[in-house]
Structure formats: C-alpha cells, structure tokens
Predict the structure.
Amino acid sequence: MKHVGIYIFLSLFITVTIIRGNEKEITPDSIPEFFLQQQNIFPQEKIYVQTDKSNYLVGDTIWFRAFLVDACMHTLSTLSNFVYADLLDPHNRLVDRIKIIKENGIFQGYLDLPEDLHSGDYRLCVYTRYMYKEQKEYLFQKKLTIDNYISMRYSVESVFKSGDRKGELIADLHFKEFNNGKSIIPDKVEFYEKEDKVRQVPTVQDGHFVFKLEDTPPENMLHFQYTIGGRTQGQYIYIPASKKDYDVSFFPEGGELPGGTQSRIAFKALNTDGLGEDIRGVVLNSLGDTVVKEFRSLHLGMGIIRFFYDPSLSYYMVCWNRQGLKKEYTLPSVTPNACTLSAYWRKDNLYISINKDSRNTTNKPLYLTILCRGKILYSKRWEKYWEDGNSLRFSQRSFPTGVLQLLLTDENNLPLSERLVFSLNKGEKTVVNFQTNKKYYSSREQVKAKIEVLDQQNIPLSTTLSVSVTDPNVVRMDTGMNILSTLLLTSELKGYIESPAYYFSGDYAEKQEELDALLLTQGWSRYKIAEVLQGKAGIPGSSPETFQQIKGMLYQGISQNKPAPNYPVRLFATASEKFVESETQENGSFCFDNILFADGTIFVVQGSTPKGKSQVLLEVEKDSLGITVNPFPLAVREPEREWIQAETEKKIQILSQGDIARTYQLGEVEVTASRIKKRPFFYMSKSPYSSEFNKSISGKDLINRYHPGSVMEMLQHLTGVSIWRDGPTVYPYIPSENPFNAIPPPRAYLLMDNVPIDANELNALMPQYIAEMEVVKGGRIATMGANGVAGAILITTSMLPVDQKVVSPTNIQTIAPIGYQVIKEFYSPKYEAKEQKNYSQRDNRSTLYWSPDVRTTESKSGEFQFYTSDQTFSPYVIVLEGLSEEGKLIYWKGEISVK
C-alpha cells in the first residue's frame, strides 16, 4: 500500500516536470488540458461527518462516521487512510484528539466525554493530515452542545454591560430552577480570568452575582463555575455584543461594476455577533433621486438590488434593520471598460450573458469556461457576444448538482470575470424506501427495518450509509447542516455559511433566489485559477497519509551536533518482542514509515554508532498537528434560544425519572471499599526495554523473601541469573546467553534507571532503594544492539539519594505517538427474555440506534434492528446519510411511530 502511494505521487511529480519542461503554448484551447492536469497533480479531499446526535451529556459517547470523498467526484477517497477528530472547548482548547484508520472502506470513531467537562458549545473538527497541510480552510467543523445534569436543573440568566473603562464588561448572573422559575443562590460562584486562574465573586445583590471582566474572554465566552448543595458545575456562556450594530458589504455581479447598463449588486448584512441581519431600504443617486424604492434582504441579511448604473453619478443606500437602526452606505463605483458575467435561472435553464461598460467599444475575443468542483464542463469562444440579446442558454440537465464556476477570459487566458451559480440536476436525486415490520411500537419492542435506495429511474443503488435513531424529546435535531449542504455547498466556499441546510429543505424553487444571493457574495478558490489558466499547476507540499510514521534525527561528534549519516536506528514496541531497524540518511534523518499501531502503543527508539556505541544524540520528531480552527459564531438567535429552553425543560422531566437522573442526583454516600491502588510511582522511570515478556520481581518481594544485605545479593536470587566470582571480580551473567560455556562468562548488560552502570557500582546501593529488577534475554536482546548480546538486567530505583541519581542516555527515547483508535461497537440493549422486559430500571436512551455502515446493493436492501426504550411520548427520528458508488449523495429523515 505504501509503495502504491509513492508511485502515485512520483507519477504526479513526473507529470509536473513534463508540463513545465514542454512550456506548452498558452491559448484558450489549452484551458481544459490545464485544469485536467491540475486535478491530476493536486487531487483534493472533502469530508463530512454524521454524529449520532448534536447534544450530549457528560459521560456520553459521541458516535460518528466520517465520509472522506474525492473533492471532484464525491466518490469515496482512496488517498488518505487516516482521519483525525478533535474536540475543542468553547475557548478552542483541545479536549481530545483521536486518529481513525480506514477499515472496510469507511472511517468510524467515537469520543468518550469526560465526566468533568463544563457545559457549553464545543466544536468537533475532523480532517486528514493531507487536508491539514494543504487545505486548512476546508476542515470539517460542527457545533456540539454538551451539558450535565446540574446545568440542566438550573438556568443562568446573564446580562452584560459595558464598564467605565474601555474593554471592561460588567457581568450579572442570576440563577433559577428550571422547573418552577424560583431564584436560587449558589453557595459559591467563581469565574476564570485567564486560562485556569479562578476568581470568586464576593457579593450577592438580590440574588444576582455581579462582577467585572477586565477583558473580553476568548471567543466571547464567559467561563465560570458555581456550587449548589456541595456540587460544583462549570459552564460557558456566550457574551453578546454590547453594542447592537450591523454592517453591510457589497458584491457586484461578476466582480466589477460596468456603467451605462442594468447591473446587479448583492449585499450581505452582518450584526456584531457575526450573524446575518435582515434589513430593508432604498437606493438613491447623487442627485437625490430614488433609484430603488424599496428592497429587502431575502434571507439572513443577504439580498440583491438591480438598477441602471449611470457612470456619471454615484449611488448610496439607506437601510434599516428590524430594530429600526438606520445606516447609510456608498455603493461601489463603476469600473471603466468593465466586462462582466451575468447569469440567472429561468425554469430549468441557465442564461449567461455579458455586461459591458457602455464606454467599452472593443469586441476582442472572449471565452467562457464552466467548471464544477474543478472539472471542465464547457470551454468555448463566445461568438458575437456584443450583440444585444446574445446570451447563452444551458439546460439544467447538462450540469451536475453543485456549485458551478463561470469564468470569462480573454485570448491570453487572463480572467476578466467570475460568477458562481448553483445547479440542481433533478436526475441525480435519490429515493429512499424505508420500511419497518410494524406501524407502531410499544416500549421495549424490537424494530426491524429495511432500506432501499433508488435513482430517478427506480434502479436500486449500491450505497454505504450511516444511520441514527434518536428520541426527539431529549435530542435536539441538527437542522443547520447535512451531507448535502456540506459536500455540495459549504465545502466549495471559504468562510462561515450560516444554516446551509436551509437551502436544501422544502421546495428548492423557493430557495433558488436566496441561494443565488449567497453565491454572489462568495468566491470559489480551491485552486489558484489565474495561475492554472497560465499553465502553472499548483503542487501539493505533502502527500496523503497511507501509513503511520516515526521519524527524527541522529547527531554525532563530541558536541553531538553533527548529522550522523548511515548510523543504525532501532524501533521496538514495549509490548512486543518484534523490532525493526533502519539507517539514517546522509543528513542524519531517519524514518520508520511502513508501520501500523493502535493508540496507547509505547515505542523505544534507539540510535547508536556503527560499532554499537551510545555516543549519539537522538531526537524524535514531534507530531506537527496543531489546533486549527476556522471560527464560526457561537451566538444563538433569540427564537432558537427560546426553543432550547423549552426543550431543556422537557428533557429534565424525562431524565429525572430514570437512570441518568440517579447517576447525577446521588446523596451523600459512605464508601467502605478500599481505595484503588495507584500505578507504582516508579513506573514512568522504568527502562524502555521493559516488557511483560521479561521475568521481573519487585525489590520489596526480594527483600521479604531473602533478606539480602546488598544489591549484588539480590541479583543472585533473580531467576535465570548467576554471579561470577574470581577474586575481586564479581559480576552477574545469564547462563542461557552463554551457550558455549565460555570462561569467564560474558557480563550481563546492567541498566539502572535506563543508564548503563558497572557491577562495582551496585555495592554503593542499599537494597531498599530497589523498586524492581527485570531480566532481558532471548529474542528481545537483539533490540539492545552489541551491548545486550549476553542479556541484560534492568534495575529500577525508588527514593534514590540525590547524589546517586544518574543522567538519562541521549541515544534512547521512549515515545507514545498517537495511534489509531480501536473500534468499539455501539451498545443497544436487547429485550428478548421476559425478565429483561420486566426489569425495573428505566430505559431512557437518547440514541436508540447507531450504525456507521449500513449497505444496500442492487440486489439487496440494507437491514438493521433495535429495541425501543421506555420513552414513547412521540415518534423516534431516523436520519440516513451516505453516498452511492457513483458519488450520488443521500440524505433522508423520517420517523418511527411509538405509543
């Protein structure tokens, strides 16, 4: 597999060399070839993640599947074999990171939420290493709400006001019980000033905790904690902008504004919380004449205004938001001699025309190119474009579903105008047939379901789907994004798109103009278009991750600062007897890259001179993955805020009846069991050569059994070890590693706290300083090089006097790099026996069923089954997401009726 990846990218490198070596003539006819070469040289990935739900309690598990696809075709990607998932807190600090390996062609994973997480809106960020290096702006992100039972019992009303000094905020927190709205005064309230520095709020005024914030916290999120009834809960609350304002940006269609012609200008209004702000207004010219009597934003502050643009006049907008705040803006000025694209849909046809500035009298050759996800769909000279009414018409059926990029270029392939439009090819829609074995279900009853996916000709499709079934009484449905909105829209655009799934819900015809307004404010930029048009293909600076790697540098010399070429380096896992060996390159670097290992694997990396000496400096390269966040607003709109509060109250009533409530509402309990013993404190100082395969015994056991007077005496009681005495010469040896009975026998290699020592040095140690002794022999001595040819004895100390501490060797490092996550199955209880159905513990599962891989074929339906819970207030919600072998995207939401 690794060699295949190397071959692919070597081929791409050769392709780049050939292209640049040939210096192909730059003409409009070369545009299709240039874009094809770009896609071959720099293939890209997209990613979408379905989670089992969007809101969780601490202690829950986030189950998810990552759909990694080819950015152009939307088929499953064959580039990367690993995906990373980061959970970030509201201050964008890393809570957890996992690495997922592709198994059975898919990426599935889970994140166990710690019990001590503070409530708030977290971010799930998922990506490949290849995407991280090459396409940071396109990493997948999703907001997840995490609560705990205490934060759900109490609501926190927050008010923030500006203080006397610049940047100062005054926070007012008022605590209430959710059930009855009664005020409650916590025992203590504290807030986090910087990082983990906590300051207590000293005063209470009529049940209100009021305090000053010197600076606005990161991401505008107040981090505080409160104690009620002996329980402390941390929480994050969004700080809305103190000044309610908005700003409007303008985007001429096609990028520039020609004069003396009918023009369209898109606008986008954002408030101080980063959300779209709906506005209305009028447009006037510099003479005071009203040009547009009234306009309104279409959706989330975005809209389009149309009027005849006189190049001799200037224009300005007067607008108001819903609160009546009035603003005035000067509209963009005319670009002399501009020549831009204009496009619109009428029924199922796309009409494309050219808007020329009235002063532009040239009729030079122009060319139209249409792309979708970087793939050329059309590229021709535009004949007689200057004639009135000479627009081009394209049937919607001639384009795939997705963002179309329209490019207008001249005879030198220089871009003049760009326009994005969205195409919905109805022939690509899929039909999902979902059937269950019953119409209604009662509690703890088995549900058997079948799924069939068809195309528009009713032909069954081979698909891979992830399936989630949740209880809507305790799970808030994610209506903001889905696989359609992510892969077809947001993954094609830079920046934050608010509620993208809205454009794919309901009747598309009603959303078409709103979606067009969105695209008029965006630009497609996965490739550097101007450079591609000139035959300058972008080249990736890294390759997809197909295997895991451990790499670093080895240095030699007295100061250990010179690269050590052709020196041996060994790598072995402490839980295995196997090891691999390599040699450094001319620059002293080494790389073990044909390896696979699970998370938690501990490795020892050892370098040496060609003669097996340890006088080298080993440096293992640390993982280069940092934390990358493309921020999006965490503010909540008022209607959504009210809905969340209503749903939370319903959730409390349900959870208070069952097992989750009991988990969090325990009273004071006396613990009589003995405390779990902690791992011995000497564990981390043990030698990297330590292994469960070695014979070992603790120093305490040796003392209790044999009462040795010295450490040398302790050694003679080790199984498989003998002591050689010849006058003053005394040292341990391992008979099994002396097969020819040499006299004197070869010495065992002694390592104390991972540092080589001479046998004579043992006389200065007292037995009570020994924590553990371990014998290394057989196949494992090969990992120790020439020093361990006769076996080794590992001595780990505890409470060693300061003057006897030793320095760790420079040629060995013990590392625990991030490995792939070992899959675990989603647990769904079965109620097959009568005793199980009558069990008194309430079943309040919020996720009834989750599967990351339900497959349909042309001849067989997908099937799954699960048991209902004890919550039968309203129908369960089922969500299917996935794709077909041909790259058709599938999203379906339905219900399973219960009573």
